[in-house]
Amino acid sequence: MKKLVVGILAHVDAGKTTLSEGLLYRSGRLKKLGRGDHQDAFLDTDALERERGITIFSKQALFTLGEMEVTLLDTPGHVDFSSEMERTLQVLDYAILVISGTEGIQGHTLTLWKLLERHGIPVFLFINKMDLAGADRSGLLENLKQRFHDGCVDFGATGDSFWENVAMCDEDVLTGYLERGKVTDDEVASLIARRRLFPCYFGSALKLDGVDAFLQGLERYTRCPDYPPAFGAKVFKIARDPQGNRLTYMKITGGSLKVTTLLTNRREGLPEEVWEETVDQIRIYSGAKYITADEAPSGTVCAVTGLSRTYSGEGLGIEYASEKPVLESVLTYQVLLPDGCDTHAALSKLTQLAEEDPQLRIFWNEHLREIHLQLMGEVQLEVLKRLISERFGLEVEFGPGNIVYRETIAAPVEGVGHFEPLRHYAEVHLLMEPGERGSGLQFDTICSEDMLDRNWQRLVLTHLKERTHLGVLTGSPITDMKITLVAGKAHEKHTEGGDFRQAT
């Protein structure tokens, strides 16, 4: 059976969990409908989620749609947990974007749209709560066209005008439509896959209105990817089960993965720390429960035990690592430990949480001699406090919050680093130039190999990438700069690798 991975995203309270329940129920996966506000939703498996009525952790559910097995990845809608949502985007074949018919396009909805655009993910839209007063179908559709894309088309419409709207998304399809008088399903599927067409379905997930039509559209207009025979996998999440086992969630993007397979991150030009570890168990989750499998073929989303050094965004086999996430933590807090608590033991435990959520930065502030953390917002802080108490038995408090700042430069400048104590020598010239906002840090070299050997140049670039560099205004990390190695010097006898770290 072919496999399709579909993510469901929304601004909080748009009805995403309700639609997820409806899709699972109408596809035959669930015998009874659950609701987030009734604390019995199939995908809100954590006690914290049931209490708050919001999705905090991404989950998966399996259901069958015709000849396809669909893995539905439910993602958090609250902005405080949006980094969890962003991590799932790297493994999606399609996305369902849920929009409230009464609220329309909200602030976080625009962020979601831009992220889906950045990742090139085809999107189906479900405009929910159309049974409530104030939901204007034509007005909403016009707003979607203006703020999202001209290719947003109402798939509840019929007749020639509907097919004309679909055909107008592409010149070749329009030509074929004018000649034949119809648009084929494969042409529609191709337009969606190429992000030229965005099907819009209107309904009420709570009343199951429009859910069947939406499922029919998913079955009719999606196409499963073709995967290469060589093994590949993309890691998108690290978690732990109730027994404390470390779980590496991944999508198999080539070949297949078998139990007892020896996996490695070894790749030419990649990192100095190479690991090799064996897959102990392959779990296929659906809600809170899972089944074990001896083999996971391409297209499978699974959790693997036995791997201790994987990270979110890592590529295994033929798969390459993902780009750096767009969303970043915006607030910083001091962690206040209980009296008599061993600081370093607590820090070691807390770093487990940062491993599971890379955007949750937990670190030791050497200057203040304190544990600090960076996160997205105050709701996440409340959830984190409860999580730390339940998992580690630590009753922590937090100091007052501050905004996380970044620094950059306004004009190009060249810096020189010269390191020459007894029997050591290295010199590095770096050109620093301002970059586009949001571009992050970029590194390059234009230094002649006649001046500085290629190996030393690679070492300088490695040292530039290996740590966070602080600015001079507020001591905040620098960003949005291009740093180029333009010149350098080494000594035949006295230069060692560490000398270039000092000079850099």
Chain-wise SSE layout:
Elements: E1 2-10, H1 16-26, H2 47-52, E2 59-65, E3 68-74, H3 82-88, E4 94-100, H4 107-119, E5 123-128, H5 137-147, E6 152-154, H6 160-167, H7 171-180, H8 185-193, E7 198-202, H9 211-221, E8 232-240, E9 246-254, E10 256-258, E11 262-264, E12 276-278, E13 281-286, E14 289-293, E15 295-297, E16 301-305, E17 315-317, E18 331-336, H10 343-356, E19 361-365, E20 370-375, H11 378-392, E21 397-398, E22 402-403, E23 413-419, E24 426-434, E25 441-445, H12 454-465, E26 481-490, H13 497-503
Parallel strand pairs: 1-3, 1-4, 4-5, 5-7, 6-7, 25-26
Antiparallel strand pairs: 2-3, 8-9, 8-17, 9-16, 10-15, 11-12, 13-14, 13-16, 18-20, 18-21, 18-22, 19-20, 23-24, 24-26
Helix pairs in contact: 6-7
Describe it:
There is one protein chain. The chain is an alpha+beta fold. It has four domains: 2-221, Rossmann fold; 232-317, Elongation Factor Tu (Ef-tu), domain 3; 331-403, Elongation Factor G (Translational Gtpase), domain 3 (Alpha-Beta Plaits, 2-Layer Sandwich); 413-503, Ribosomal Protein S5, domain 2 (2-Layer Sandwich), CATH 3.30.230.10. It has 13 helices and 26 strands. The protein has a seven-stranded mixed β-sheet with strand order 2-3-1-4-5-7-6, with helices on both faces. Strands 14-13-16-9-8-17 form a six-stranded antiparallel β-sheet, covered by helices on one side. Strands 18, 19, 20, 21 and 22 form a five-stranded antiparallel β-sheet that branches. Strand 19 and strand 20 (370-375) form a beta hairpin. Helix 6 packs antiparallel against helix 7. The protein is globular and about 85 Å long. The termini are far apart.
